[in-house]
Design goal:
Keywords: ATP-binding, Nucleotide-binding. With about 700 residues, this protein is an alpha/beta fold.
């Protein structure tokens, strides 16, 4: 696409020179012309006779609108008339609007009256853009006109955006089917709408000084899309582009932080119960193999290691300094750390921005940046990196090594993560507290975990994003290889972002996060346990090769619930072809039911489970299996679990590697059966039909985002 950027630049500079932050309707029209955004035929009249002439030239009926940089809310001022069908109506309408505008604001400068061809056919939608504090420029699309206020059926994406992202927005609103045409209605031209969305994204991407664009309504027909009303607002100041470190610069620091040759503990202590004592014990008892340097001006040694008055006195290089001192002493110690050339400062102390000490936090950020020190925290429990046996925290060391990296913004949630990891035996590569995120944030961590061979899945609890656009860029890189799971806390809506703008008022915080996290390709978890279960399960599951999901169940009731769960999680239940249906029927009793779910009934022996599960795994048209088990004396829970584990292992050895999840209903024996299945790579949960399917749905969401599904 080519755009006339020079024409837009001239219009924006003119408005700025006149001290205006709102463009007039004709100026908005000219900007639309420069970016290929279709608007109705129109002209600017400065007399009633001229209005009639323009109306007759562009074709009646027409709409008249006041054009004044001092009247932003045209309707409130009586500055809009619709459906004027003849010359006399246009002439009278011109005089009526001019009188109403002067009565509304006698001091207003009036450029004239916009005469616009009337557009009324098709579906009314809104296309716009707004500047978000977290993500910068975002594009909005949804139902327009009056419905935008009532239904708030709108979706958001980062700007600029691709044509595919724009098309995806059309399917992402609840009224998507309306645009396709229902009950004989004419469908909207999807390509024309997506093209307009993409052009709006390009406009605000090219001109960051544009704070908002509001095209409402846009009339979408089978032939195209036309923006009937254009509103463009400028920012008071041109926003400065956020400074970001390069990927190479981030990795240079992160590699030293996660794989340090030496760690200094500032505030190391001999006294049990002190944080400085716990950190020292954890480094030693956790098996860290690098140099450990206690920093304590009052003790010659700590826990048998020689102590130093200052980090400046430590011989040789230090990669990481763990701070275990009160907040009031941090700044001075950080200056010493910076002069020493330390890569990372792990700020355990609280008492900074989280308690209102914004100035104190700003001071240590400035010191760290001056010396090139990356700072984790403050207000954190520390961090683990199990491949290095590195426990730089006041919690107990975690020793189950694996591929899941977990981060949390909250210390309390961090403890929940730690407890779940221990109780479930989940193998972990890292557990990291980010706290106030004064410096190191999720972007930096994703950049490290992306290239970390010890990590195959990342799960993040966050309350906000410091740099939403940076997060999206990092996430879109890593999700091609590894799933990223996000628990976004804080679902409160922001207020209106700019008075009077539909687009701004609809930019609710959680809706924006939800849509843009999906654009980033991350899997959003609805709750803490969901995040942890996704993190535990996704690395164990093979990636599906297609969308066909088959349910095999021993109980009709669970089959219904599992079907509902599949629909809720965006999974596609396979339409069983006749030959496969016949093959399933050969293994189930006459009173069972083939189709999907395949109901083998509850009284069947282990062989029925084995034959039907093996058939589903062996048929290449089936891409994932959901198994519903019902506790019976014919097939007890552990018999079922051992059977399923064996069949899945045998089929995987043949190359039939598909995700298999199971729901087990029964007495308490099903808990042990689930543990056995989990240990053998089959995701299984007792007493629930929702959770195993939710985990499978999460795997599918990641696989789709990563482009790993065939077709």
């Amino acid at each position: 696409m080519t755009y006339d950027q020079a024409a837009v630049r001239e219009l924006l500079e003119k408005a700025r020179a006149e001290g205006r932050t709102a463009l007039t309707a004709p100026e908005g029209r000219r900007i639309c012309d420069a970016y290929g955004i279709t608007t109705p035929g129109e002209g600017l009249a400065t007399s009633a006779n001229e209005a009639v002439s323009i109306a007759e030239e562009i074709g009646l009926p027409v709409v008249l609108k006041i054009v004044s940089p001092d009247i932003l809310h045209k309707t409130e001022a009586g500055g809009v008339l619709v459906g004027l069908r003849d010359a006399e109506a246009v002439r009278a309408g011109y005089d009526q609007i001019m009188a109403a505008a002067r009565a509304y604001n006698p001091e207003a400068g009036i450029d004239g009256i916009q005469v616009q061809a009337m557009v009324g056919a098709g579906h009314e939608v809104i296309i716009g853009a707004v500047t978000d504090d977290t993500f910068g420029k975002i594009v909005a699309f949804g139902l327009g006109g009056v419905l935008v206020e009532v239904l708030k059926d709108v979706t958001f994406r980062l700007a600029p955006l691709s044509g595919d992202d724009a098309l995806g927005m059309l399917d992402d609103i609840k009224a998507a089917e309306v645009l396709r045409g229902v009950r004989g209605a004419e469908p909207a031209n999807r390509e024309a709408l997506a093209d307009m969305i993409e052009r709006v994204g390009a406009l605000v991407g090219d001109f960051p000084e544009i704070a908002e664009v509001d095209l409402n309504p846009v009339f979408a027909t089978a032939d195209g899309a036309t923006a009937a009303d254009v509103r463009i607002l400028l920012a008071e100041e041109v926003p400065q582009e956020r400074a970001r470190l390069s990927r190479e610069e981030i990795l240079a620091s992160m590699n030293r932080i996660f794989k340090p040759r030496s760690v200094a503990v500032i505030g190391a202590s001999e006294e049990t119960g002190k944080i400085g004592n716990s950190v020292m014990r954890n480094l030693i008892n956790g098996g860290y193999r690098g140099h450990i340097y206690p920093i304590n001006p009052k003790s010659p040694e700590v826990l048998g290691l020689p102590a130093y008055r200052s980090i400046s006195d430590v011989p040789g290089e230090v990669d990481v300094a763990v701070f275990a001192i009160p907040a009031k002493f941090v700044a001075a110690a950080l200056e010493d750390v910076g002069r020493k050339g330390v890569a990372g400062a792990i700020m355990i102390p609280s008492g900074f921005a989280e308690t209102g000490n914004v100035e104190g936090q700003a001071e240590i950020v400035e010191i760290a940046r001056k010396h090139g020190v990356r700072m984790l925290g403050p207000n954190i429990y520390g961090y683990y990196y199990t491949p290095e046996n590195l426990c730089a925290t006041f919690c107990t060391p975690y020793d189950v090594k694996g591929g899941v990296a977990l981060t949390s913004q909250s210390g309390g949630i961090g403890m929940a993560i730690l407890g779940f990891s221990r109780s479930s035996g989940m193998g972990v590569s890292a557990i990291v507290g980010v706290g106030n995120k004064a410096d190191v944030d999720e972007d930096d961590l994703l950049t490290f975990f992306e290239q970390d061979d010890n990590t195959n899945c990342v799960a993040m609890h966050l309350e906000d994003l410091k740099d939403g656009r940076g997060f999206v860029e990092a996430a879109q890189r890593i999700i091609r290889k590894k799933p990223v799971i996000v628990l976004k806390a804080g679902r409160t809506a922001m207020g209106a972002r700019a008075a009077g703008s539909h687009t701004g008022a609809l930019a609710g915080d959680d809706k924006v996060y939800d849509d843009i996290l999906r654009q980033a390709g991350v899997v959003r978890a609805p709750g803490l346990n969901d995040m942890l279960e996704y993190a535990r399960s996704l690395p164990l599951m093979p990636t599906p090769k297609g969308e066909n999901v088959v349910i095999i169940t021993g109980a009709g009731g669970s089959g219904v619930l599992l079907s509902d769960a599949c629909v809720d999680n965006g999974l596609s239940l396979m339409e069983i072809p006749p030959d496969l249906d016949e093959a399933f029927r050969a293994y189930i009793p006459p009173f069972g039911a083939a189709g999907n779910p395949v109901d083998i009934t509850g009284g069947e022996p282990p062989s029925t489970y084995e034959n039907t599960i093996r058939l589903g795994l062996a048929d290449p048209r089936v891409h994932a299996l959901v198994i519903g088990y019902w506790h019976t004396i014919v097939t007890p829970p552990m018999v079922f679990a051992e059977l399923v584990a064996r069949v899945v292992a045998e089929e995987r050895a043949k190359g039939n590697d598909k995700p298999v999840v199971a729901s087990l209903a029964g007495d308490t024996e099903v808990e042990e059966a689930c543990d056995h299945l989990f240990a053998n790579g089959v995701i299984a949960y007792p007493y629930t039909t929702e959770k195993p399917v939710a985990v499978l749905g999460a795997k599918y969401r990641w696989a789709r985002a990563a482009g790993l599904l065939n077709g």
